[in-house]
Write a structure and sequence with these properties.
The complex is a heterodimer of chains A (201) and B (514). Chain A is of the alpha+beta class. Chain A is built from 2 helices and 3 strands. In chain A, a hairpin with a 5-residue loop joins β1 and β2. The radius of gyration of chain A is 40 Å and the shape is elongated. Chain B is 12% helix and 54% strand. In chain B, the strands form 2 sheets. A 14-stranded antiparallel beta barrel of chain B has the order 1-4-5-9-10-11-12-16-17-19-20-21-22-24. Chain B is elongated, with a radius of gyration of 26 Å. Chains A and B meet through α1, β1 and β3 of A and β1, β2, β4, α4 and α5 of B. β3 of chain A pairs parallel with β23 of chain B.
Chain lengths: 201, 514
Amino acid sequence: MKTITILLGIITLASCSTVYKSGQTPDDLYYAKARTVVRNNDRNDRVDRVYEDRQIRMAAYDYRWRTLDDRYDYNYRYSPYSYGYNYGYYYNPFYCTYPVFNNNQVFINPKNTAIRTTNLRSYNNNITTYAPTKSGGYTRTTSVRGYNNRNTQNSRGSDIDYRNDNNNNRVYAPSSNSSNNGSRSSPTSSGTPIQRPGRGQ
Amino acid sequence: MQKILMLIMLTVSTKMYAQVPEDVVRYSWFPQNGTARSLAFGGAVGSLGGDITAAFVNPAGIGFYKTNEASISPAFLLNSIKTNYRGNDYSNKKNIFSIGTSGVVIAVPSQFNENKSNAFSIAFTQNASFNNLTYYKGLNNFSSYSEKFAEEFSGLNTTIGNVLNSNSIAPYTSAVALQTFLIDTLTVNGVTIVKAAPEYILDAKQALMQEMTKTTKGGMYELGFTFAGNDGKKILWGATLGIPIVNFESNTLFTENDTSSNTTNNFKSFSFNDNFKTTGAGINAKIGVIFRPKEYIRLGLALHTPTYMALSDSRQTNLKTSLENPVDNFEASSDLFTEGKRGVARYIQSTPLRIIASGSYVFREIEDVAKQRGFISADVEYVSHKGSRFSSDAEQPTVDQQTYYKQLNAVVKDIYKGNINLRLGGEIKFNTIMGRLGVGYYGSPYKDAPTKASKVTLSGGLGYRNKGFFVDLTYIHLISKDFDVPYRLENAQTVYASVNQQRGNIAATFGVKF
């Protein structure tokens, strides 16, 4: 909102001095002609002459100004950034870009950076499900993933009952080392354990 | 490139591990924004030029400027979103201020040839507005949101103790779900599995009442520096250096309730609140050329490079679970598992390449405003949504990070496609008054979608130019068809809600020639 106010202010100010106040507003989308500007080159010449005259007068007044030559060379003796070659370069920000008092300190600001990952297998076009058989085993079924936005009769226990407790779909099998079988490797804790609250107390 | 982006962000990064495929279309699938004038004729400014919107479409159009201009384009958006989730319809409204393309154009005419000129501009625009409210609710006897946590924890191949840790690897999802017993381990016939409490309801052939409220804020903005030239005969050219700025916040509340009267079926309800913010900046380039084979005819071609953005996410979740048999209530915040503060992750995301071909016919390219009559213009744009990529910002990404990003980019390539966007419009001019109409069509970026996704804009507007000023007023009506997936499961069909958005956009532009 602040930006809008500032821009509106600029436009209002600019509008006070618009050169097209008394005529048509040119439309560059169709065609517009550039405004004719008459240049006064005499003015620049006059400014140069004034500086040159001033330099001659200063040199006549004091000999130190006679060495000043800012047109052809950069004289380091007049540079406020010159610290000499043998001493003081530590304090010259153009020579030494590192902090003077750097003891290689390490600043620790622990942050958890595990964020917003998702199970990318849930985007695969095929789904694999496990249906129980009458003999007590399971049938592995692969089908094309579809979309679901409607409840059906017994939709969870129909032809594909992958949520049967006896299936091996969501096995809890923590690995002892850092292996990677398509998902993330088994992590190692770097923080402190969080106690789980008691259940049913 | 990555080092430059990090310097832009002025941050010191550690490591990262983030992002999901849905983040792609947020930064690539949106109707083109612009000045009120360009919006009124559908945004088909690709070959027309002479409007500051060209800086973000075809920079060669800035080359038409031979006079200086400053303009600002405030807008007001009236959002209305209708959803359908499992047979239930809902609607919500949310209104918000916005800003169209605004800025300054300075023309530098040639001293030797009155037709030849250069021009440069500094412009600002809002590419996309993320301000929305999406709500839906319905009975579901098919799956539960909590199964996502169970799947994730099972796939981690780690112990409960390793997840319930002050520096957890799954602090926002599995950790809070385990801490509140929304998911737990269960041994059946000697096999230990991970089970979510709401599954007991589904196993009993009953339905869960699911409810989702998602509030999003922010936008994707862009600052553009353009330089363009006009050879005074047939060719105009231009280039824009764009600096996009992203500010996005999402707050999702998802609840599930047991609808049965049974008080011993293990589950009563859970409420999961997920808040995350994304901020960052990027860099891109746009180059373009306009060819005028004959007077009145303009043909344009523009290329937008991918935008490389250095983004930073911060996230916090909170889960409340009520269980039965025995009755218990639990609550946990992800802060418990992220060293007591919001977790932060940084990464690089690139948006897709764009190519725009355009043509227009201008009736009377003449200086005298009273004799200018109007124009018709059309743009065809190709956007390669499947070309978006994610990568780590780390100098030496871990094997896990590399694996995740490789898989993530493969999924992006697999579920998105390139789409075609069309913009068409025209203007009729009566001396100082102008009338405009336009239409825009933005095709689906999805390879496979449950509903036919698209965005259509219908627009009309008026303009007035006199005495060095110009004022434009436009109304744009957006009709968007899309879908929202609350959660995805590895071995089940994807539940979704259809989302139909109708958005009124009242846009104005105030400008001055100087």
